[in-house]
Each structure stands twice: as C-alpha cells, then as structure tokens.
Amino acid sequence: MYLIINVIKFLLTQDQMKSIIFILKSYLFSLFYNFWLINIEQSSNQLIEVCV
Question: Which keywords fit this entry according to its UniProt record (predicted)?
Fold first, then answer.
C-alpha cells in the first residue's frame, strides 16, 4: 500500500513537471513570437520609409 502511494506521488510529480515545462515552453514561444512579429513590423516600416 505504501509503495503504491509513493508510485502515485511520483507519477503526479512527473506530470506536474511535464505540465510546468510545457507551460514554460509555451510562454517562451509566445514571447519569442511576439518579439519576432514586432521586429518584422519595424523592419517592414523601415522598408516602406526607404521605398517612399
């Protein structure tokens, strides 16, 4: 019984770690994506200014 409880705890912590890692990855990805979008916007604005 004790062993089963420990295994369940272990599985729970594994899942929590996975979900935390997943959340962190998503967060970093969104940050990177927003940064990338902003850069593209700025560079396209500069291009437009150069062209006009």
Answer: Membrane, Transmembrane, Transmembrane helix
pTM, full prediction: 0.49
Quote the number of domains for the chain.
1
Range of the domain at 32: 1-51
Distance between first and last Cα of the chain? 76
Q: Would you state the structure tokens that stand for residue 20, as one six-digit string?
A: 């935390």
Residue identified by tokens 């899942």 is 15
* Helices (H), ranges, 1-52: 2-51
Q: Classify residue 18 by its DSSP letter.
A: H
pLDDT at residue 52 greater than cutoff 70: no
What is the chain's Cα-based Rg? 22
Q: In degrees, to the nearest 5, what angle opens at C-alpha 20 toward C-alphas 12 and 32?
A: 165
